[in-house]
Specification:
Structural class: alpha+beta
Main location: nucleus
Strand order of the largest sheet: 2-3-12-9-14-7-6-4-5
Shape: globular
Catalytic activity: Thiol-dependent hydrolysis of ester, thioester, amide, peptide and isopeptide bonds formed by the C-terminal Gly of ubiquitin (a 76-residue protein attached to proteins as an intracellular targeting signal)
CATH architecture of the largest domain: Sandwich
CATH class of the largest domain: Mainly Beta
Subcellular location: Nucleus
Protein name: Ubiquitin carboxyl-terminal hydrolase 39
CATH superfamily of the largest domain: Jelly Rolls
Helix content: 10-25%
Number of domains: 5
Keywords: Cell cycle, Cell division, Hydrolase, Isopeptide bond, Metal-binding, mRNA processing, mRNA splicing, Nucleus, Phosphoprotein, Spliceosome, Ubl conjugation, Ubl conjugation pathway, Zinc, Zinc-finger
Number of helices: 25
Length: 889
């Protein structure tokens, strides 16, 4: 038995193979990255990657928390669980005569039924293997554990080694002795063992021919045809020479299985069920390198096989025909007899006569490419070149044999195929030469450069491999010979391009990288960075910056473009950009770059876009004195599910409330005060006292009786808040003696008496009425006041024009706190830093914001692109709507 993290050789099956141990390294060992970089397997020990699962996930815990939904369970009559592709069973590509025996089937089963069958299993019963993708159907405890994985570590490996996106996390629960036969995956795999032990046998891609994979059209594609328990050396003679690696993974271990590496996984023969979680990452869009890597050779080989199958429609023709093409290309043409013997048993799409064999490879190549051109874009890919040799032609002259050029299949997006080979940049980026001198740098036009808009190719609208033309400012995809950037450079004579993702400069169509320090200003405009020292001095610096057109601007006091009707968003974003801790947090990308979110959750985009906007607003080296919030608003539309749009007017308070809560959730905030920068800055708390009002049609005696019941007693609840709602008094109904409307005024302190714990206000519902009073118990560092100006009646929205008289400094909230609350506050004096104003009618009005520049004490009025200074005395005369106050230190 496996006890105390131990196992012995009696628990594993015996195989006659040459197997070497897989390196075992501490997961923080620098050598781990060296091995991963070269696609070599490595076992990570003492890992915290799945620590919550290792500590908690017993079978009892999983049974209790996995949820009551059905899970995918595979059933097999033997210990082998061979996956199969259902589409290939049902497709026309699987003709009669293809051998396929299905010993494994998939069923839906509740976890309680699965656990019961596992516990009661006896020899002769069907074996079970639960394989389920981790998703929201699992219980909240499992989801919480999953969120507690060390995502920063795995994300770092993904970025460091150029892996693609996380495609899935699978949970495996296997019975002892279960085996997944030898196969390879077209993805990177981090194999995290949670409970029990598994033996893992791995083979590198160069062992492809020794492992005899099924053809691509077979339902068992990507699996070896060799039975490891009883290998048939007569049928598979090269299997005798197979060489691989092996290890045993235990709880806390993580095995890195590189892309296209064969792996044979089996639970130990004894020791009970095993639990595993894997992290599947798509192959990154890597470019070809010469000589080709082993996994790239396998990828190309399988793609060619797939294309031949699609062209010929008959799987039986694929192998012989591919051999014929290659023989006709590389073998001395005089060896016609040998070729004829090899293809004599194959029906060919040409007349099978000896004379046609002299040029059969040429004829078929023409036919082959003609068909492919109708179905695939013409992306040439050079296969690994065999040794060059002279061959004799019919004329008796000698010429040099050249490698065969074949296209590679790709997906509909035109980016990279399922094996991770980049087809946009056929000329590998790693092969681009580096030049420190470029004769075209003087053609760069910085006035045309605008990096505020979405990074999309202006032709194909793809987001992958996008380059900016530094001459005209347009975006194009790729830089290979068949890409839009290449075509643009040739057609327009524009030569200097910037990769918007890697921040590298290239000259096209020559395709060399440009290294020149004079381009650093362009790179900084695209991705501004701030040091801690720079951030510290932002509120004390009075230095002005100059845009490329010569205009002066103050960093942080720049206009935002109004795309159509997004002024209600602009004023909120401008106001929040002057909340110091929030600004400082988002100016440093490191603070939120590795925030862990569940797979498929795109809320990180909201955080990323807000950080980019914040850095651009405070960039002292901008090319222009304004910024477009286009990408930020795109993220808002996406994440709010079109609740907020920039094509129609909205309410700033609705947007502010949603935006603060969305950022808090995206930053993995909880209900605790310091769980995110949002709550640290804006979260306060109050007590709400509520009592029910008896119906008015009752007499005094009945009312007195009701008031004595528990239902009508006052109830106190503690409630957090991100902003305080101040209710304006109703405007007067009558006009003055000049028959003009009277514009009433009210003092801010009068509005704030609502929160002194003594003032009561009636709140009506459809059935019952309540009296409520509010008592502030904790003031936040930044206090947001919402002055409620709009009310809805049965027919339309009304605006209250009452002017609120407020000071811009020294607003003391002490008089609104109880003695107990005062004791918890060292200071209660606030200063105004932002004031959002509404002008005009309720449905047709506009918004503007007043911002305080702390370094000079100067106030500025900002309305979209218009920025002007303003006297503080003028601010108090406006129809204030939302205000942000800062606690004085």
């Amino acid at each position: 038995m496996c006890e105390n993290n131990k196992w012995d050789a009696s628990q594993i099956r015996k195989y006659d193979m040459d197997l070497q141990p897989i390196p075992r390294l501490h997961y923080k060992d620098p050598k781990v990255d060296e091995l991963m970089k070269t696609n070599q397997p490595v076992l990570l020990t003492e890992s915290n990657i799945a620590k919550p699962a290792v500590e908690k996930w017993t079978l009892e815990y999983l049974e209790e928390n996995l949820g009551k939904c059905g899970h995918t369970v595979y059933v097999s009559k033997t210990h082998k669980f061979k996956y199969y592709d259902r589409k290939k069973i049902l497709s026309k590509a699987n003709p009669k005569g293809v051998e396929f025996t299905n010993d494994t089937k998939s069923v839906e089963m509740k976890v309680c039924d699965f656990m019961k069958k596992v516990k009661n299993w006896k020899q002769g019963d069907d074996r079970l293997y639960l394989q389920q993708s981790l998703n929201s159907t699992f219980g909240p405890a499992i989801v919480e554990d999953f969120m507690g994985f060390d995502w920063r570590y795995v994300t770092d490996k993904k970025a460091r080694h150029g892996w693609g996106e996380l495609s899935a996390n699978l949970l495996f629960i296997a019975m002892e002795g279960n085996c997944t036969p030898c196969h390879y995956d077209e993805q990177q795999n981090l194999f995290a063992q949670i409970k029990g032990f598994k033996r893992c046998i791995l083979f590198p891609p160069d062992q492809f021919e020794c492992l005899y994979p099924h053809p691509v059209y077979h339902p068992h594609d990507r699996q070896s045809m060799v039975d490891f328990d009883n290998p048939d050396y007569t049928k598979f003679p090269k299997f005798k020479n197979v060489k691989g690696f092996e290890t045993v993974v235990g709880p806390g271990d993580v095995l890195y299985i590189p892309i296209y590496w064969w792996h044979h996984i089996e639970s130990l023969l004894t020791g009970g069920p095993t639990v595993t979680v894997n992290f599947w990452y798509k192959g990154g869009p890597s470019c070809l390198e010469y000589p080709l890597k082993d996994h790239q050779k396998v990828s190309i080989m399988r793609n060619v096989e797939k294309m031949l199958l699609e062209v010929l429609q008959d799987p039986k023709e694929v192998g012989p025909l591919l051999r014929t093409i290659l023989m006709g290309r590389y073998v001395d043409v005089q060896s016609f007899e040998i070729m004829e013997q090899q293809v004599s048993s194959t029906k060919f799409p040409f007349n099978n006569q000896p004379k046609i064999l002299t040029s059969i490879h040429t004829c078929f190549t023409v036919y082959f490419f003609k068909v492919l051109k109708q179905n695939y874009s013409n992306f040439p890919l050079i296969m690994n070149e065999p040794p060059s040799k002279k061959i004799k032609t019919e004329e008796g002259t000698l010429r040099e044999s050249k490698p065969l050029t074949l296209p590679v299949t790709h997906n509909a997006s035109g980016t990279s195929n399922e094996n991770g080979i980049n087809i946009n940049d056929i000329k590998p980026q790693s092969q681009a030469k580096i030049h420190r001198l470029c004769p075209y740098l003087d053609t760069i036009n910085r006035q045309y450069l605008d990096f505020d808009f979405e990074k999309l190719c202006s032709v194909s609208l793809t987001r992958i491999n996008v380059y900016a033309c530094l001459v005209c400012g347009k975006y194009f995809q790729g830089r290979g010979t068949n890409t839009h950037a290449y075509t643009h450079s040739v057609a327009e004579g524009h030569h200097v391009f910037l990769n918007l993702h890697t921040l590298k400069f290239y000259c096209l169509p020559d395709n060399y990288e440009i290294i020149d320090s004079s381009l650093d200003d362009i790179k900084y405009v695209l991705n501004p960075t701030f040091t801690p020292e720079h951030i510290k001095n932002l509120d004390s610096s009075t230095k002005l910056s100059r845009a490329i057109d010569g205009s002066l601007y103050t960093p942080g006091i720049v206009g935002l473009n109004n795309i159509k009707a997004n002024d209600y968003c602009n004023v909120v974003l401008q106001a929040l950009s002057h909340v110091t801790p929030l600004r400082n947090y988002f100016l440093r990308e490191e603070n939120y770059l590795n925030i862990k979110r569940p797979p498929g959750d795109s809320s990180y985009l909201l955080v990323q876009r807000f950080g980019e906007l914040m850095r651009k607003l405070w960039n002292p080296r901008n090319f222009k004195a304004h910024v477009s919030p286009h990408e930020m608003l795109q993220a808002v539309v996406l994440w709010s599910k079109k609740r907020f749009q920039f094509t129609q007017q909205g309410d700033p308070i609705d947007f502010l409330s949603w935006f603060l809560n969305a950022l808090h959730r995206a930053l993995n905030g909880t209900k605790k005060q310091n769980s995110s920068i949002i709550y640290k800055s804006f979260l306060g708390s109050m007590k709400i006292y509520t009592r029910k009002i008896p119906p008015t049609d009752l007499n005094d005696k009945e009312k007195k009786t009701l008031m004595a019941t528990e239902e009508y007693q006052e109830v106190a609840t503690e409630s957090p808040f991100l902003y305080l709602t101040c209710d304006l008094p109703p405007p007067p109904l009558f006009k003055d003696e000049f028959r003009e409307n009277i514009i009433p005024q009210v003092n801010l302190y009068q509005l704030l008496t609502k929160f002194n714990g003594q003032s009561e206000k009636e709140y009506k519902t459809y059935k019952e009425n309540f009296m409520k009073r509010f008592e502030i118990t904790q003031l936040p560092p930044y206090l947001i006041l919402y002055i409620k100006r709009f009310t809805k009646n049965t027919f339309f929205v009304e605006k209250n024009p009452t002017i609120v008289n407020f000071p811009v400094k020294n607003v003391d909230f002490a008089e609104f706190l109880t003695p107990e609350a005062k004791a918890n506050h060292e200071n209660t004096v606030y200063d105004l830093i932002a004031n959002i104003v509404h002008d005009g009618e309720p449905s047709k009005g506009t918004y503007r914001v007043h911002i305080l520049q702390k370094s000079t004490g100067q106030w500025y009025e900002m309305q979209d692109l218009h920025v002007t200074d303003i006297l503080p005395q003028m601010i108090t005369l406006t129809e204030a709507y939302i205000q942000i106050y800062e606690l004085r230190k």
